[in-house]
Amino acid sequence: MQLKGINQERRMAEDQNILNNPDPNYWQSFEEFYKSPDFLKTHEDEFKEGVTENFDSSGMSSFSRRKFLALLGASAALAGTACSDYRDKGEIIPYNKMPEEITPGKANYYASTCTCCADACGLLIKTREGRPIKLDGNPDHPVTKGKICAQGHASIMNLYDPDRLKNPKKKNEGRFFEYNWKSANDEIIVDLMNIGDKEIAIVTHKIISPTTKKILDEFVSKYPTSKIYSYEVFDNSARNSAWKKCYPANEANGAGEFPAIKWNDAKIILSLDGDFLGESHNLVENARLFAEGRDVVNKKFNRLYVVEGNLTITGMNADYRMRLRSDLHLNFLLSLIDALNKKGANIPISSGGLTLEKFANENKLDKQELASLVSDLWRNRGKSIVYAGSHLPEDVHIAVNLLNHSLGNNILYNSDSVPVSMIPLSSTSDFEKLISSMNSGKVAVAIHINSNPVYHLSHDLGYSEALKKVKNVISLVELENETSELSNYVLPINNQLESWGDAKTRTGFYSLQQPVISPLYDSRQTENIFLTWISGNSASYSESSYHQYLMNNWEKNIYSSLNSRLEFKRFWYNSLHDGVVYSNDKISLPDSFNFESSDHIRPAPISKNFTLQIKESYALGDGRFANNGWLQELPHPVTKIVWDNCASISPTTANELGLKSNDLVEISNGKNSLKIPVFIQPGSSDNFITIESGYGRRNGVTVGTVIGFDATDLLKTSGGLSPWLYTDVQLKKVEGEYKLVTAQTVYAFNEGLTADLPNKRGIIREGTVEQYLKNPDFYRTDKKHEPESVNPDITYTGLKWGMSIDMNKCLGCSECVIACNVENNIPVVGKEQTDKGREMHWIRIDRYYSGTPEDPKVSNQVMVCQHCDHAPCENVCPVVATTHSSEGLNQMVYNRCVGTRYCSNNCPYKVRRFNYFNFRDHFKDSYQESPVFALLHNPEVTVRSRGVMEKCTFCIQRISEARSDATREKRDLKGSDVKTACQEACITNAIQFGDINNKDEEFYSYRNNELGYYVLEELNVRPNVTYIARLRNTSTEKA
Amino acid sequence: MKKSYLDYILRNRLPVTIFVAIAAFALTYFASSAERDGVGYTPDQPINYSHRLHAGDMKIDCQYCHIGVEKSHHAIVPAVSTCMNCHTVARKDRPEIIKLTEYYVENKPLQWKRIHKVPDFAYFNHSVHVNKGIDCVSCHGEIKQMEKVGQMQSFTMNSCLNCHRDAHNRLPYLEKVKDGPENCWACHR
To answer: Does residue B103 sit at the A interface (CB-CB below 8 Å)?
Structure first.
């Protein structure tokens, strides 16, 4: 970054030029925007400088060339003398007793429930020969409808994580020793029995299972001094408590939580810092319903206004985006209400003298956009929704509820399926009480159920100190963590794919969880451990205890309430098969609003210093996925940073403070402080810092330890607007730099003739809904001269594969990237290798900014191999390792490839990936070569080794399987028989795949859409991937 | 004298030596090609199972044991439990069956020697071939007459392509058969 070195005047002139230039100038980073000479030099070439150098010999295999040759000679001599049976082909070892449901070579699918977070999405687990290899959504699940989030996809890696705890452990004189279950349970039971009047504290994440709740209740009645503390670091507490205050009548009948929203019915959506397309709460349903309202085929368009502090996934998809620091949202809302009241809305809240005009002036908001927002909200009463971020203070949520209620928007709350909770989450004051009783020695046993309060809770609380005063600390974990380190007993628990369970998150249905593999290690299921403790006898344990208990509970308590006509056993097996059980419990949403709830709301004082938001990490959640390499390496949807978190600040703020990206700063929140690198984030509001938490784990085992910076250091128990939002934060520059690695500017565009390529060459094509409705072909220009192709023209008459990507629906969420990683055995390469441009993802999402750095517009583009008919890569391969199939696929054959990389050099889309190493061997001391890791691989896809090129195959293994099924059923293969992994994963169905030549298929309407275009069409390479141009639904006043 | 000896070596002995070397190599190369491709490989199996007896004389259908052949990539070597369907009663006193029962009772893995193998990077699919009507015999030979199974055909890429390119003549019993695919991803991926 060379901001300082550039003449200030020249830059201002350029900025002016950009503002005056109606053509949006697309850019991917500041280096590109300011045309930094270093940057341009670096990106003149296809491969980054040094990409073939700097092979650190210490990181490489200790097997030198000389040693190799010596051994080769020796082994040849040996082979010559020993003359072994060269025809020997090994053995085939069949099953001894054939499991009934398994046909070797064929996958089985099982329905289950994901318990990675409290959303409990439905799972469909693909297993091969008894081992799970891929997770997808259960299509029968009423909320998630066959989709899961990126973490859900990646969580299959957690099952085969070589770091998983394999045995119980006990601490003795400060060191852990391997222990056995029986003695551990015996000793723990003695402690529990002799608890006296001291407390047993159970610390857990949110409980979503009715049967788990029942077991905990039984535990409490057996050991009456037990107390349950459940927490989520990023919960909905502010939104829910506001909801209870606004609609108090309904606490009695159980609907104490903010309901789900019918986004698909909303014409106008105003999101106040609410990242509903990127935060974990109900993400899958939100994204699906939102995208239903952006349908170019049926010409249905909603309009999304986003007012936010920092750029989020939701902000990237906004039609209108305004920057506003998060602490000012209450004032904004009050001004907005004032403006609506002037239109006659009659919303009973005092604006405290704020007017929208004044507010817009003070905060440099676009008045035209605001005017259109006010009139849209007013005109679309009952068809619009206002939504506020969960980190905003309760008052904002009360005002939002009031606004929605007054405009009649409360009919968009989903009353058919209302969120329910098993055990209410504990508040900060609950934890304060727990810690003070720990400190006074009143707590004798603390049990952590797969939770990590030492890392998660604000250090102000002093949880880890207090834990030292507890006689017996027990951690039930899959992976060791900061809390298990401080425990006396560390007990390994089953992964979600090895567990039984049920879940109740909404009214109307239950989900069931079933194991698909026996426990890999000597671990036990949490509930089963509790059953042993409840029985008071360690010998009472059997592996099926909890399974039996679960069935009994269902038979007695749930089955009886369902009025099923089936007898229980059949009901149970049917339900396990479906994964979902429908029930007729109903909670009606209230319609009487408590208007007194908003009486106390006054405009918030404006702080002069920085405002800080701590946000949940998009990839790692609250840090529980830190040891998952796929998620660590997933480019952040907005910043594109991998393997790190950072403090995002706006370009203006950076200029004022003389900061550039990678500079270390010290952020102080009261007496808490953290040193962290800054990242200049276009679209962030001024004097605003955003940090994602979930990084900086002190004990995140092999992969996750000390990756990034621990934002928990900044959390305070009081004094914030909410636990995640603080005003009056100080930021000061300190010595040093820390390199953040982004996966974005690796392939960028050059100066001179090729500047502003994304727009000029039609990589990104966009328009407005209005333009489109007037003239569907608005963006098509006269066809330019097409270069002659050296390839012969081939007419494909039969099946021909193609893909379409609807950029109106693509949110940039990167689920497809993880799904592709899992399906296609993509290795994790690590931060340094990503920095060298050696990442291996077959699918990437290019994020382009346009406009000014302060207020950019964002365009996302999924980029995969385009399977060009006139593929430039094919002509240059000296060994014919990449060729074309009769079905239009661009084939890559690994066993022919000699690694010249000519194909990658000649690919205009930069989608080919070269194995510079055997990355499985190269990353973290061959972490991915552990025997257990091999179970993760998809057996239908080759595990590529060093020295070969690879790329997207359009999931050829799935095409082959569909073809063999079609052959078996004596029918022709159809395009709709095949779903690629990315298509299956895409929550919003932005990716479609099928037969280009079949006019009867749904895919045909996407392939031949009026808005369809090819990227770099002018090259005449004839891609088989169609992009559907994005339309921004801006209003007529400002076309 | 010295010169003519050199002359003799260059003119006669060298060409003869080279010719013999090349001829020997070429002869061995062609003569051993079948062997190198594994044709004729008939290893001893842990249990002396006879296909001639079971499939030939007793006419048990191939798919009674090789249940995957129509559904899956793999034809599937049957589980020990499949043998025991009959042999819990049939011929219990024979030494080979006693051996088999031992495997079954002790839950020991039965390690059959592998005879047919295509390389790792080729994804051969039995079900597609069988469902097109191709007879087992076309690749595996007259199994029904084999006391001990051996490899009858070569399983090189060349032999696959020979048939894919000329299916009609190679599989005369299939009237409507079309040539097989020749693109790389039909087998390699």
So the answer is: yes
A569 forms beta bridges with none
Q: Is B110 on the interface with A (CB under 8 A)?
A: yes
Q: What is the structure's pLDDT at A978?
A: 94
Between these two residues, A52 and A74, which has the higher pLDDT value? A74
Selecting from B78, B116, B132 the residue whose C-beta is nearest the C-beta of A94 gives B78
Contact B127 A968 (CB under 8 A): yes
What tokens appear for A201 in the block? 């504290």
Inter-residue contact A1000 to A974 (CB < 8 Å) = no
CA distance B37 to chain A (A): 9
Closest CA to A1027 of A1038, A1013, A1007: A1013
Minimal CA separation from A636 to chain B, in Å: 30
Domains within chain A, CATH numbers bracketed: 107-159 (2.20.25.90), 169-234+425-582 (3.40.50.740), 237-412 (3.40.228.10), 610-742 (2.40.40.20), 765-782+797-1034 (3.30.70.20)
Q: Do B68 and A940 touch (CB under 8 A)?
A: no
Does position A285 have pLDDT exceeding 90, yes or no? yes
Predicted-complex ipTM score: 0.88
Separation of alpha carbons A437 and A449, rounded Å = 20
H or E element, residue A856: strand A856-863
Query: How many other CB atoms are found less than 10 A from the CB of residue A845?
Result: 22
What pLDDT is recorded for position A14? 53
CB pair distance less than 8 Å for B184 and A96:
no
Q: Given pLDDT bands bounded at 50, 70 and 90, which one contains residue A74?
A: confident
| Among A109, A214, A148, residue whose Cα is nearest residue A501 | A214
Whole-number Å distance between alpha carbons of A676 and A647 = 7
Please list the residues that pair with A1013 across neighbouring strands. A1027
User: With 70 as the cut, is the pLDDT of residue A13 above it?
Assistant: no
Partners of A883 on chain B (C-beta within 8 Å) are: 183-184
On average, the pLDDT of chain A sits at 87
Max CA pair span of chain B: 88
Closest partner residue to B121 among A93, A942, A956, by Cβ? A942
Residue that the structure tokens 């930069």 belong to: A910
| Residue A705 to residue A480: CA distance in whole angstroms | 11
Q: What is the per-residue pLDDT across A712-754, written as a single tens digit (0 to 9) for each? A: 999 988 888 888 999 989 999 999 999 999 887 644 444 455 5
If contacts are CB pairs under 8 Å, which of residues 113-172 in chain B contact chain A? 113-117, 119-121, 123, 125, 127-128, 131-132
pLDDT band per the 50, 70, 90 thresholds, residue A771:
confident
pLDDT of residue A923: 85
pLDDT of residue A54: 63
Q: A967 and B131 in contact by Cβ < 8 A?
A: yes
